[in-house]
Structure formats: C-alpha cells, structure tokens
Amino acid sequence: MAGGMSAECPEPGPGGAKGQSPGPGRQCPPPITPAPWSLPRWRAYVAAAVLCYINLLNYMNWFIIAGVLLDVQEVFQISDSHAGLLQTVFIGCLLLSAPVFGYLGDRYSRKTTMSFGILLWSGAGLSSSFISPRIMPCLEAVALILLILLVPDPPRGAAETQREGAAGGSRSSWCEDVRYLGKNWSFVWSTLGVTAMAFVTGALGFWAPKFLLEARVVHGLQPPCFQEPCSNPDSLIFGSLTIMTGVIGVILGAEAARRYKKVIPRAEPLICASSLLATAPCLYLALVLAPTTLLASYVFLGLGELLLSCNWAVVADILLSVVVPRCRGTAEALQITVGHILGDAGSPYLTGLISSVLRARRPDSYLQRFLSLQQSFLCCTFVIALGGGCFLLTALYLERDEARAWQPGTGTPDSKDVDSNDLERQGLLSGTAASTEEP
C-alpha cells in the first residue's frame, strides 16, 4: 500500500502537474478516457436506409441494359456474344475506380469519399441523359443530398467501441494492406465464393428476361419479336421476383447467421456454402424444365434466387469479422473488384458467346435459339457449386483469422465473448456504453 501511495501520478492533463506524488492519504485520480462514440438508434436506421437507397441506385444502373436488351439487339442487329460484351465493358469501366476509392476510404473521410463518388457517378448519368430521357440523374442527386445530411461519418472501429487511433492501429501502406489480405485465407476464399455468386447473378440478371421470353414463345404464349419495341412482360416479372426473393433472402440469411453463430462458430461460411450448393440443382431444374412447364421453371428460379440472396449480408459480416478496421475499405474494394471482374463482368459475355457458338451450328429457328441460350446457362450451375466449395474452405480458416483480427493492437477488441460484443453494439446504437466486464 505504501509503495502504491508514493507512486507518481500520471500527467493529469494540460496545465496540471506532471509526475507529482499525490501525498499521504491521497490516491491518484483515475485516468480520463474519452467517451465512446455513440449514435442514437433512430439515426442508425436512417443512415442504413440512405445507404440501402444508394446501393439500390447502383444496381439499377448496372442492369439498365438488361431491361432493354431485346430492343438493343434489334436496333443494332448484334448477336448474343456482342450483347453480353456490352455489359462486360460497362462493368469493367466502373470497376477501375474501386481500388482507388477503397484506398481513399481507409485514409480519409469515408463520407467525403462516397459523396465525391456519387457526384462523379451522377455526372456521368446526367451526361447520358442528354442522349435519351432518364430519371436516374435526379434520383442520384437525391442520394447525394441524403448522404450529406443524414449519414454520419463514425470513427474507424466505432462498432467495436474503440477510439479511432486504437482501432486504426499503425498506418500501413496500400501494398502492405494487400499483402495482409493475401495471407488472410478466410478473406481469399470468401472473395472467390463471392466471385461465383457475382458470376451467376450477372448472367441471370442480364439473360434471364430474354430466356423466359423465348420460353414463352416456345410455349406459344407470345408471338416472336422481330421489330422493336419488343414487349417483354418477363422483364417485369423477373425483376419483381428478384426484388422479393432478395429482400426475404437477405433477412433469412442474416437471422440464420445471428442465431447459429452462437452455437457454431463457423456458421456463417457454412450457411453460405449450403445455400450455394442448394442453389445449383434449383438453377439446373429451372433451366431444363423451361421447355416443358414455364411455371415450374419460375418456381425453381425463384427458389434459387432466394437461396442465393441468403448470402449477401453474411459475406459482408465474414469480411468485417476477419479483417482489421484499418484496411476494411481496401478489403471491400478488392473483393468488389475481383468479384465483378471475374464474375458478372464476364459472365454475360461468356454466356452469350456460348449461345452464339451453339446457334451457329444449328438451324435458324426460334426453338434452336432458345435451346442454345438454355444450354449456355448450364455453366452457371457448375460455377455456383464451386462457390459453395470456396465457402467450405473459408470455414476451415475462419476461427483462426477472426482471432488474429480481434487481437489487441490489430484494431479490434480482444474479446472472446460474442454476446458481450453484441451488448457493446447495442450500447453504441442506444447512446450508452454497455459494460463487458465480468463481476
């Protein structure tokens, strides 16, 4: 006790005495720590809604061509391979900026970085609106205003209730971040799984409306289209089905991961693997049943999309759990770049190319056109099964990489209690810090 009372107190702050003894009978005051960053729950919900709106506009832009694909082919008289190449070029140009903005997001204000990106994005949309009437630039301007006014810019690692300096750790270069991510096998294998998901999603989103229309023509439910504008009700039906299964699938996947993570530490990659492995037969049945019964094809297609959508929230949670906060922006950018370049940037072109090659060897009839596109789609069933295998490999490394990411000094709290971390996040949202100390 005497030794403790004679110890020097730490520096109390500006203007205070430095290293002075507290004197007999007195104790050093507790160190002053800054209050943890907090956010009211309603504000968090509003910010999440704005970010979802921005992401919705992003994917609306990506699949604009698919909605008018038949008209584009009729006007320009292009084959399936050249039509698929349009989407490849479009996505390839968009992805050039992903690594740059990931680097900026890790080192500067993420809100400012996003605002600048939306400004460039809406400017490009505005330029194209002078060519043809489009409402997207107006929606993008609204997104920029909502982002500036309603979305906060929290410190890095705030979800783990740490100060930005502690969460960020020592600043590293971009090359060091990439080397770290390359050795993070959970990140590598989950990125390859996301690539398989993007491959199938891109092919379905681009070609499925045309495939379903040609199936309708084969069944005699609609006459062929030989002159634009082409009426395609399947674009609206498939789009509505995608929205519905997407919303339900994301909720189901997130809830399943939340429940089973408490029991099975590797639940997240196992959920992704099982859903993708179940998607493969659903997609196969949707393709092979289309010439026989269109209703059954729609049912299995919707079920496959539902299972596929169960993964989108879960894969994001996997990335956040195995990557330290200081380079999560770079990790997201690399995952987006790899996933789209090897996934949906090439899958529409590859599917169209296979279809064109098959059509060149067959009689020129609407049935043969349909069968060529149907058989070119079969490659997606193999790719999605490979994606399931990638997530099984992710499960082998998940616990090790999570432990490394949550070690002291790497940017995340050293906690072994998952439930206490949940309490910390609840305290963050409600504006009060939840205690994680054991009694």
Short description:
It is built from 20 helices and no strands.
Structure notes:
The chain has 439 residues and is mainly α. 70% of the residues lie in helices and 0% in strands. The protein has 20 helices and no strands.
Molecular shape: globular
Structural class: mainly alpha
| SSE succession | HHHHHHHHHHHHHHHHHHHH
Question: pLDDT average, as an integer?
Answer: 78
Strand content: under 5%
Q: Helical percent range? A: over 70%
Low-confidence stretches: 1-8, 10-19, 162-168, 411-439
Cα-atom radius of gyration: 26 Å
Query: What is the oligomer described by this structure?
Result: single chain
What is the straight-line distance between the termini?
24 Å
Number of helices: 20
Question: Which secondary structure elements does this structure contain, and how are they paired or packed?
Answer:
Blueprint: H1 2-5, H2 41-62, H3 64-67, H4 69-76, H5 80-95, H6 98-107, H7 110-129, H8 136-150, H9 164-168, H10 174-182, H11 185-218, H12 233-261, H13 267-288, H14 294-309, H15 312-322, H16 328-344, H17 347-360, H18 366-377, H19 379-405, H20 418-430
Helix pairs in contact: 2-8, 5-16, 5-17, 6-7, 6-16, 7-8, 11-12, 11-15, 11-16, 11-17, 11-18, 11-19, 12-13, 12-14, 13-14, 13-15, 13-19, 17-18
